[in-house]
Amino acid sequence: MAGKFKVFVTDGVSPSGVDVLKSCPQIEVIESPTLKEKELLEKLKGCDALIVRSQTQVSKAVLQGCPTIRAVGRAGVGVDNVDVDAATEKGVVVMNTPAGNTISTAEQAFTLLLGLARHLPQAYASMSAGQWDRKSFQGTELNGKTLGILGMGRIGGEVARRAIAFGMRVMAYDPYLSAAKARSLQVELIDRVEDLLPHCDFLTMHLPMTEETKGILSEERLKLCRKGVKIVNCARGGLVAESVLLKAIEAGQVGGAALDVFEEEPLAADHALRKNKKIILTPHLGASTAEAQESVGIEIAEAIRDYLTEGAVRNAVNIPSVDARTMAKLRPQIDFGFRLGRMLSQIAPARCDRLTISYAGKIGEEDTTPLTRSILKGFLFGAGGSDVNEVNAPKMAANLGLKVSETKQTESGEYSELISVRAGQDGKEAEVSGTFFGTSPHIVRINDQWMEARPEGFLLLMENKDRKVNIASMTLSRSAPGSKALSVLNLDSAPSDAVLKEILADKDITSVRVVKI
């Protein structure tokens, strides 16, 4: 077997995927059931790649303890069980299968929706116990009811199609979905979660887990829901805290819930969720269909095979598909581009349908593909969280109805190179521009005002009337004397809501925002 690539496959990856690897004469396959960290470290010695599903934890210790590992393949979408930062630091490519389980998860969510509407699991349990109790399980029709969807990515869109086929009215919240795309999906787009909740008979979540989405269904927001609303979660545990959901069900505010994902998995045997008869529980079955497992198994096997034998990279979550020379040259700009995109997404109008990236000066002479994708990744980070990367960002943008364009010019004006990113819809736009002073990145323009700020930590952006007061500790800009002025402060931490409210109470201050870079 000398000279062959060794690929370690665990967690019961599809046999069809394993066969793809075995059919390659350059690859030796080692199969194993799921292992604990210590055993995994021992078995991985001498292996070039590792393929897992969701059970195996590919920790920093595993990655550091296996010097020969060059790639990790996740047969599925989420990479929560892989320490991507540690892999990147070690030079290990992490690849996933972003589209393989879309239909499977959408069907699971809709199955749970039907189960909630007709009390199917509870009725089955009653029949299994020898009872014949029709009165206790009177359900409700989906036809004519309103379904609220939080998150209109691939899976949310598939759920919407099924709901419309059942005669449901579909309302959706997704700040990254364009109005045109919403119309094509035949859903009503709502600007705020708070405005959506009072209309819903059923509510389903299809969001990534990010700082913005964790606990998105808070105790306060659940009180805004129509009394008796039924909730489905096949996305991520923690989008609604289990204790908060249980309290709302016991109080009668929420009429029932169906959960396929949990804050901690596997769910504890004595967990309170198991004891409530209004809750349907399934053990994370979203991607557990023969078709989905075969699809993701084959897809990840082909990706690992092609990487080892040809050096090709696709569906990588931690590096763009670009040659090593160009990557080394563009690395500082790529990191800066992500920050520019992340910043723009937080000051741009809601539901932008266009994003324009402009390069001026020396940077325009390079292959800017990885830089453009990094900017797009930053802009979509709030929508996709860790699920969005340089590879799938263009597809995610297309799914959201976001048109991305790129322009280049050799002249850059005052700067040797300038990166400008602009986003908008219906005549409303926001823009951020940046450059490098030596090796140090700087933001030099926000909307129509030139200024200077470091793209790090938290930035406080404050618009106020220009009273011609010089403040040395802030970056200040104004359109004209006596008109609108912009102040940018670099902060060590985000100010509290109370502080922001107090600042905004000043009659000369027209807006205040906190942007996390």
- The count of helical stretches stands at 16
> What proportion of the residues is helical, as a percent range?
25-40%
- CATH hierarchy, class of the largest domain: Alpha Beta
The average pLDDT score comes to: 90
Task: Compute the number of structural domains.
Answer: 4
> Mind summarizing the main beta sheet?
7 strands, parallel
Going by CATH, the homologous superfamily of the largest domain would be NAD(P)-binding Rossmann-like Domain
Rg (CA only): 25 Å
Annotated CATH architecture of the largest domain: 3-Layer(aba) Sandwich
Tally of DSSP β-strands: 22
| CATH fold label of the largest domain | Rossmann fold
Low-confidence stretches: 468-473
Question: Which structural class fits the helix and strand makeup?
Answer: alpha/beta
- Form type: globular
Strand order of the largest sheet: 8-7-6-9-10-11-12
Strand portion, in percent?
Answer: 15-25%
What does this structure look like?
- The chain has 517 residues and is of the alpha/beta class.
- It folds into four domains: 5-99 and 290-310, NAD(P)-binding Rossmann-like Domain (Rossmann fold, 3-Layer(aba) Sandwich), CATH 3.40.50; 102-281, Rossmann fold (3-Layer(aba) Sandwich); 320-426, D-3-phosphoglycerate dehydrogenase, domain 3 (60s Ribosomal Protein L30, Chain: A, 2-Layer Sandwich), CATH 3.30.1330; 448-517, Alpha-Beta Plaits.
- It contains 16 helices and 22 strands.
- The chain has helices at residues 15-22, 37-43, 60-64, 84-90, 102-118, 120-128, 154-165, 179-185, 193-196, 219-222, 242-250, 290-310, 324-347, 369-384, 393-399, 497-504, and strands at residues 5-9, 27-31, 49-52, 71-74, 93-95, 146-150, 169-173, 188-189, 202-205, 229-233, 254-259, 279-281, 354-361, 403-409, 417-425, 428-437, 440-446, 449-453, 458-465, 475-478, 484-491, 509-516.
- The strands form four sheets. A seven-stranded parallel beta sheet has the order 8-7-6-9-10-11-12.
- α13 (324-347) crosses α14.
- The longest helix has 24 residues, at 324-347.
- The radius of gyration is 25 Å and the shape is globular.
